[in-house]
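Reopening this one. Same input as before:
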Amino acid sequence: MTGQSQQPIVTDQHPPQVPAAYHQNDEIDLRELFKALWDGKLTIVLATMFCTVLAVTYALTTQEWWSSTAKIAEPQSQDMAAYQKLVKQFQPLFDIYQEDGTILVSKDLDNLIDTKVLFKRFIDAFDSVDNKRDFLDTSREFQSFKAKLQGNASTSVDEERRQLYSEWFDKINADATDKSPLSPYELTLQSTTKENSYALLQEYIQVTQSKAQNDALNNLQTIIDTKHNELVQQKRILESQARNRLEVEAERAKYALNIATAAEVDKPIQSYNDKEIFSIDLGTKALAAKVTALESVKNLSVIEPRLQQIDAKLDMLNTLKIDRNIQFQTFRFLENVEQPISRDKPKRALIAVLGTLLGGMLGVAIVLVRFAFRREDDESM
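Same output, byte for byte:
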């Protein structure tokens, strides 16, 4: 056994046979995919047409909304001339006239004619929820929407009414065009037709302007009434002080007269005692005349000169009146109200295009799903 050469072990040089199933490519052949899409072209067309018809129907039947706009800015002096003249005629009532003839000009009325303040009040009135509610309650168009509210199982009529008001409040806006303090504002009102939008915005601007004017005049009236009450109180205080001073002077003169009579001082004498409470320097005749004069004083401004200034201001108040028929503007138009050219919504062309795209995508998806299921069935066989 040892003398024989050992034969090498021969092994199979070829790898084992792999079943053909393992060589199958799991990737989808693009030619098969395009063929499936071509075969399902009718499905794609029908789905596209169906979605397009739905989109166009929705675009044609849904509620239209149009927005009218206007751009306004702070008023100029010429817009406020009549109101400023009205306010300034009350200026002397607030100025202080000093004894040396100088006048301290009051600034109490400056805020009333400040164009920035008046413009801000107009914007606040335009954005006021209460003002919007009052205006909508007079609008026939809004009332037609309100009349359709019926409520349902989940919401009551009151809840739907509050929601309706909230939606319409958002359709009336005043927005600054930039962030600067003197920024113009764009006024917008949205409605169901361009005619209604135009008419409602014009009407609401007029209503707001009228309210802003009335508020300005009411503020002036309030300040004038306050000043009138202040002057009346000052007059009462000064008159009381004058009467007390008059009574005290009369009593002093009487006591001095009695003392002078007892001292038999009939004629004025020279005295060097200025600290005497009951001075008898004038003599009995002059003191008697002084007592008579003090007791006969009727015009208290003789004792208190400041009463003359107060009486003059009160007389002015009786003659000056606030003219509520004056015309003035608390804003100026940069761009007046114009009818809108295009609707806000629905965007019919966009809706139709999106509907068509959605339909095409839906049709393709249906065809691809069918193709995928059919391919799995073929592979399993």
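So the earlier flakiness isn't reproducible anymore. For the record, The two ends are 59 Å apart (CA to CA).
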